[in-house]
Design goal:
This protein is of the alpha/beta class and 500 residues long. It contains 15 helices and 19 strands.
Length: 500
């Protein structure tokens, strides 16, 4: 009988979450490299280059691929002949491993989990509890799959109860464009088909753990209906022209993974969950011989791709830029930002709105007038870092606050990832402001441009506090210009026509 010791299991969970925080699965790197080589859209190709360069930097520096270090998801298949040498429950063992991983002093990971989700939403400080799925199976080993699921992609999860005669393909093709770019493509779509509502969602999440092998499937051809469906969706989703970061291009998904399960004759449950450019998961087996030993990939497995700005790139001094300057910026143009900017996310914006509603003044020293805000919740720094990985969060979540920030706070520009909605775009146009896009999935690369950082307000919000960053040559793209034109509308439309 196999004995799984408490410390071995806890340390294995901790090591695995540390491992996936800075190592992309190699199948993802190879698939993204192939997509980069095929890509014809300059904007999408540039975004992919940043993601690949960032990935290598993280592998070298052992720092998170993305500032959103994810919610911990664990799938366990526990052999029924396994004996546990522990005084803790299996869930407590997992959570202790997650706690160790996220508090590791050499690679602190961002604590993103909040309790009381419908109320005070208080940060748990150590990213626990994990989401755990346990299955008892024959045997004398414990099979473990771990994933760190980012909020931007998780927020785009979809579920539908179709009629048995409805088209799954039609639903997917109608739904993917509505997901926007907040899930940070190019990534993977996981589909769960059948069972019940909750079973379909679980299948979709588990499907994302499978290796990328669409290229092999294309070579040998499909053997059954699910493989036919994978190929059809892969081709047709990419033909939508959404592209990397929603900028328009040839590749939106690197693979489509599907798991199915028998269902009621009157039902066709379909769940779809995307995995982002920060795809992070690992699989290992415990046999009672100590903690897992995960083999690091070779740096030679990363492509020799560099990211450099073009000769025509516009350099911008944030400390002296004027609204007249903003009017000269062209849609899709690359800018290099230097100077000081403020940061803020959901919680900070809500607190600002509450202060205004109560007729109270802003905290001392906080002034948004004629300044830029960066939507980010950075990872805590380690060693000699000024700040940890600090990539953008989804700007769409701040849309409802945008009129307030532009009209009442005097903000002139915003930086984030993904598209802006109609309400935000209208406010941007009205106030002759701009929205700039940084690449999601390139958090460590972006952090290299941050030369100083300090908290200026709402320190109790942790990673959601308002910081002031001083940046040098921070790369961004003009995504909504002062005329209210959006690259996330124009870019995909261009490449969708191209693919037809």
């Amino acid at each position: 009988m196999t004995t799984i010791r408490q410390e071995d299991f806890i340390q294995s969970i901790a090591d695995a979450f540390q491992f996936i925080s800075y190592y992309h699965p190699l199948d993802y790197i190879k698939a993204l490299t192939a997509a980069y080589q095929r890509e014809e859209s300059p904007a999408a190709k540039d975004a992919m280059a940043q993601i690949l360069v960032n990935s290598r930097l993280c592998a070298e520096g052992h720092r998170p691929i993305c500032q959103d270090t994810g919610i911990a998801v664990v799938f366990l298949k526990v052999g029924m002949n396994v004996h546990w040498d522990t005084t803790m429950s299996v869930a407590d063992l997992v959570n202790e491993g997650v706690r160790r991983a996220y508090r590791h002093p050499d690679n602190v990971l961002r604590a993103s989990i909040v309790s009381d989700p419908a109320g005070k939403r208080k940060n748990t400080k150590d990213n626990t509890p994990a989401v755990i799925h346990t299955e008892l199976v024959p045997g004398d080993k414990v099979e473990v799959q771990v994933a760190a699921k980012g909020g931007g992609s998780e927020n785009k999860s979809k579920f539908v109860m179709l009629n048995p005669t409805d088209s799954i393909v039609d639903w997917v093709l109608q739904t993917v464009p509505l997901m926007g770019a907040g899930w940070c493509p190019p990534g993977i779509l996981g589909l769960g088909i059948g069972g019940t509502a909750e079973k379909a969602m679980l299948l979709a999440k588990e499907a994302l753990m499978q290796p990328i092998d669409i290229h092999l499937l294309k070579q040998r051809g499909p053997r059954h209906r699910i493989e036919e469906l994978r190929l059809e969706l892969y081709e047709k989703v990419n033909a939508l022209g959404i592209g990397a970061q929603g900028l328009g291009g040839l590749t939106t998904v690197l693979d489509v993974k599907i798991l199915d399960y028998p269902t009621h004759a009157a039902s066709l449950p379909v769940a779809m969950i995307p995995n982002c450019a920060a795809t992070r998961h690992a699989h290992f087996v415990l046999t009672g011989n100590g903690p897992v030993e995960l083999t690091p990939p070779s740096l030679a497995d990363w492509p020799p791709i560099t990211w450099e700005v073009g000769a025509q790139t516009r350099r911008v001094n944030l400390d002296s830029v004027t609204r007249e300057d903003l009017a000269q910026w062209q849609l899709g143009e690359t800018l290099l930002l230097s100077g000081k900017l403020l940061t803020g996310r959901d919680a900070a914006h809500q607190r600002l709105a509450d202060l205004l509603a109560q007729g109270q003044s802003l905290p001392a020293g906080l002034d948004f007038n004629n300044r830029f805000i960066y939507y980010v919740g950075p990872v805590d720094p380690v060693r000699d870092e000024v700040v940890g990985p600090a990539g953008p969060t989804t700007a769409t979540r701040m849309d409802k606050f945008t009129p307030m920030m532009l009209e009442q706070m005097g903000l002139m520009g915003m930086i984030g990832k993904a598209e802006r909605g109609p309400k935000a775009i209208e406010a941007i146009k009205t106030h002759r402001a701009v929205y700039l896009m940084a690449v999601g999935g390139a958090a460590y690369l972006v952090s290299k441009a941050i030369r100083a950082a300090r908290v200026v307000a709402f320190a109790d919000l942790g990673m959601e506090a308002i910081h002031e960053f001083e940046v040098t040559d921070m790369p961004v793209t003009v995504a909504v210009n002062t005329q209210g034109n959006s690259i996330h509308q124009i870019g995909p439309a261009k490449w969708r026509i191209y693919n037809q």
